[in-house]
Specification:
Strand 2 and strand 3 form a beta hairpin. The protein contains five helices and three strands, in the order αβαββααα. The chain has a three-stranded antiparallel sheet. The chain has 148 residues and is an alpha+beta fold. It has one domain. It is elongated, with a radius of gyration of 26 Å.
Length: 148
Amino acid sequence: MSERHVSKMLRQMAGGETVVIDLASTTKKLARLACIAEQFGYRYADIRKGDRYVMLIVPDHSPEARARAARNWAQYPNAGDGGALPPLAPDAIELLTARISFDITAMHTPKQLLAHTCLAGVPLAAGIAFALETASPPLSSPLLPGPR
């Protein structure tokens, strides 16, 4: 992730809309970008799969985020032009890295979901039905005719 990517993201954030980050990068670098965005009033929302991973960051309207953004824009006015950035907490980067990694691994296309169902669900249900059929004694009821 370069200074150019950070500057581009911060310029897009100035518009107050959702920012789409389409960057071939590692989860750690995407998390660092998301962490920088958090310092300026945005938050990580989602990651999607296209030709490569696309990260969405959205405005954070909480009072704490607004105060943090106002403080950091005042303290780092040239951040969008490649200037200094606020320091990032390593724990915050690690937490976002874990969240982004989880979101990536949790993604499944409809075809993948169908394949998982066919490969795991159907055989599992058939196995349970077979086990119940062979393990349980025959049903007896006063309403059913007995053996003749």
